[in-house]
Design goal:
The protein has 334 residues and is an alpha/beta fold. It has 13 helices and seven strands. The protein has a single domain (14-333), classed as 3-Layer(aba) Sandwich (Glycerol-3-phosphate (1)-acyltransferase). The longest helix has 25 residues, at 281-305. It is globular and about 55 Å long. This is 1-acylglycerol-3-phosphate O-acyltransferase.
């Protein structure tokens, strides 16, 4: 009786998921249920493990971060395992082969509400799964279970109002300057996920301000990106430009959890040296907008061709390694 009270979009998604699950094979359905329950259950049961993190914090934030990253990397590894091994989502990497274990600022397009989850698949392969930190909207910090994890992982919450966010961001970013601490800082410069309605509004803004008209992206907000660069420039190895495309439709969180969609995720990555990015705010803003114009062309070609240039830059996940990490985490919270 509660289904009828849900928003139409969510109601439709749940009905679609129910249809898929009714037609799933018993083995696949059981695997999805087990991994989903393990992923959420382990996070819920892991609250007592924060004692170890707090103990490490007594000896300094550097050791606290080491303890946090070790613990949460094992939990996060459950999700790429769910996506790629159980849901059978094909994740195809293209562009450049990125080096292992760099300290980077990563910026990406924001196609749907779960783009940030597929960056886990890339971070896994680069040995940085436990060192991800996101800049995200403050309301996400209030999510059950996830919000608690975001706090522990030192994600940066923003209100998307620069007069409020600037001082908070800069203070938090300054705590990430120690080059001894591994870091993958992820930012979505569009500030919100893409919709046709938002795109039309973005195009109107671009036309009024002499900016490129983008058809597959929104005009990026440049101030947060520049703040990240300005504070962290001397402690980063590189900047990664990541573009994400989906086949055959953009997934939702419910799709991911229940193994409905997508059938394929394409992730295009480019490594950019800090010396290639201007140091002045005005020029850095122009540089970022030019990158988004390039990304817009990438996505237009992806829609036509079905793939990004130079696919196959990363291999498949190791099933043995996935199971080992999953088992380690389950034992640690049991």
């Amino acid at each position: 009786m509660y289904i009828s009270r849900l928003p139409p979009r969510l109601k439709l998604q749940l009905e679609y998921v129910a249809h898929i699950q009714r037609h799933a094979t018993p083995t696949h359905a059981s695997l999805v249920r087990w991994t989903r329950a393990t992923s959420f259950g382990c996070l819920f049961k892991s609250a007592p493990q924060t004692d170890g993190i707090l103990w490490a914090f007594h000896y300094g934030i550097h050791y606290s971060r080491k303890a946090t990253s070790l613990f949460f990397a094992t939990w996060l590894s459950l999700w790429p395992f769910l996506f790629e091994k159980i849901n059978k989502t094909k994740v195809i990497f293209s562009g450049e082969t990125l080096p292992m274990r760099e300290r980077v600022l990563l910026f990406a397009n924001h196609r749907t509400e779960v783009d940030w989850m597929y960056i886990w698949d890339l971070a896994w392969r680069k040995g940085r799964l436990g060192y991800l930190k996101y800049i995200l909207k403050g309301s996400l910090m209030k999510l059950p279970i996830f919000g608690w994890a975001f706090q522990i992982l030192e994600f940066i919450a923003v209100e998307r109002k620069w007069e409020i966010d600037e001082s908070i961001m800069r203070k938090k970013l300054s705590s990430f300057e120690d080059p001894r601490d591994p870091l993958w800082l992820v930012i979505f410069p569009e500030g919100t996920d893409y919709t046709e309605k938002k795109c039309i509004k973005s195009q109107q803004f671009a036309a009024e301000n002499g900016l490129p008209i983008l058809r597959n992206l929104l005009i990026p907000k440049t101030k947060g990106f520049f703040a990240c660069l300005e504070v962290l420039r001397n402690s980063l190895d590189a900047v990664y430009d990541v573009t994400i495309g989906y086949k055959h439709r953009c997934p939702t969180l419910i799709d991911n959890v229940f193994g409905v969609d997508p059938s394929e995720v394409h992730i295009h990555a480019q490594r950019i040296l800090l010396s290639e990015i201007p140091t002045s705010e005005i020029e850095a803003a122009k540089w970022l907008i030019a990158r988004f114009k390039f990304k817009d062309k990438l996505l237009a070609d992806f829609t036509t061709l079905g793939y990004f240039p130079n696919p196959g830059t990363e291999g498949d996940l190791s099933t043995v390694a996935c199971l080992a990490k999953c088992s380690m985490h389950i034992l640690s919270v049991s």
